[in-house]
């Protein structure tokens, strides 16, 4: 999984939500019996490798349900949203889709996806999965059109050798982070800290906002990032660039570590990529949770949802297959198949973290991210606001604005786009 895939998975379209909420749900397709033969088509967003991984879970299901066949096809992130939108509005296409966290709300609101509460899936899996993402995938009326399929989380990657030489421990707080940057610089490290996934973007700000005790919106979807916590977060984050010289140019985790960056904030999918892309880094790096802020730990969580299209003539069988993806057997098959292709697949099931093919420090960092993680907001207008909000944040990074007026302007943009 690359950065584009993870970012798209995290933030894909909520922009049609306002209109979708005013759209009545389309009549359900004529349903075949809830049991019996079915040929299901599953569009899996991501690479061909990821589709092959998911096919392993489909084949596992077919072994115990021989009258149900599931064909998994890769759906590119580049045009996947448009293709699923066309399927939803044209009522023709796959039975099952995976996609960005907001796709279920969008396409379900348009009448294109089944409310999985009717099939009992959220009730069956919610208590066992990462909790912070459920707000992102639950529509304002409580409908759940897609349940979490996989997760991507933020971690701190660090060079063990550089930190040991400078007698620095992996930072656990904001204060320790800036102190570590000073000590590493004094020890000759040119770039003590950098950010990969979401560099100079709202995604990285989101982490600091949560760590400061803030949020992008209130529970009733009023803009909230211009709170005192939002100002605290933005001032600290901007200082990492202005005062401590974190690069505004992005280098992915493997390259950054290989080029002498001591600490990098990046996505969990890079865990398997570091040693593969940079063999000379083997045994020289480790991971830790993101440092905690004044309110504690907090981090953005991305990933994909999976759901059933409303026109499917085999919705019950499709939903039953989705339920199977949360069984220990299916999770193991997916995790092992992904690992064989150099991908760390993180199931949303909290009990599975300890079984990941990862080192103890990586597992502990992922556990911390799960415990303190939040998905993107499910509020109308956020998708269309992201680019302009990021510009306002960057004005502070580049010294063109103070934090409070920049955030006030961002909040106004969010309010206007809410409709």
UniProtKB/TrEMBL annotation:
Top-level taxon of the source organism: Bacteria
Residues of the signal peptide: 1-28
Statement: the UniProt record of this protein carries the keyword Plastid: no
Transmembrane portions of the chain: none
InterPro entries referenced in this protein's UniProt entry, alphabetically: Bact_solute-bd_prot1 (IPR050490), SBP (IPR006059)
This protein's UniProt keywords: Signal
PANTHER family xrefs: ARABINOSE-BINDING PROTEIN-RELATED, DIACETYLCHITOBIOSE BINDING PROTEIN DASA
Record's protein name: Sugar ABC transporter substrate-binding protein
The organism of origin for this protein: Streptosporangium minutum
Higher taxonomy: Bacteria, Bacillati, Actinomycetota, Actinomycetes, Streptosporangiales
